[in-house]
Amino acid sequence: MQFTVTDVPERDRFEARDEKGALAGLVTYQLTGTIIAYTHTEVDPAFEGRGLGSTLARAVMDDARAKGRTVVPICPFLAGWLEKHPEYEDIVVRTTRKIK
Q: Taking a C-beta distance cutoff of 8 angstroms, is the pair 44, 56 a contact?
C-alpha cells in the first residue's frame, strides 16, 4: 500500500493518506522560526502494521532537512525512531531531560 505524506500548515500537521485519499496517519508539530517540534504521531488502527509510522517519520525528517530546520522530537514514537536512524542526528536537538 502506498501512502502520500503532505504538510498541512494550516492545521500544524503532516497527513498521510492512502491511494483512495483516506487519512491514515498524522504527525503534529509546532514551528517557531527554523525550529520544528514534532509533538505527536498517530496512525489509524486500520493502517497499523504497515510501516506507516516509519513512513511518516522519514517524511517529516526529510522535510525538515530540506527546509534547513532543527528538530525537537517531543513525540515518544519519533524520538524512539530517531534512535534507530542516526542519519538525522545532525538536525536533531537532544536534551538530557526526559519528558513524561
A: no
pTM, whole model, 2 decimals? Answer: 0.91
**Angle at the Cα of 26 (from 47 to 78), degrees rounded to 5?**
95
**Is 14:6 a contact under the CB 8 Å cutoff?**
yes
Partner residues linked to 97 by β-bridges? none
Concatenated DSSP letters for the chain? Answer: ---EEEEEGGGTEEEEE-TT--EEEEEEEEEETTEEEEEEEEE-GGGTTSSHHHHHHHHHHHHHHHTTPEEEE-SHHHHHHHHT-GGGGGGB---SSPP-
What residues does 35 pair with on adjacent strands? Answer: 32, 70
Each residue's pLDDT, cut to its tens digit, for the chain (100 residues) gives 899 999 999 999 999 999 999 999 999 999 999 999 999 999 999 999 999 999 999 999 999 999 999 999 999 999 999 999 999 999 999 764 555 5
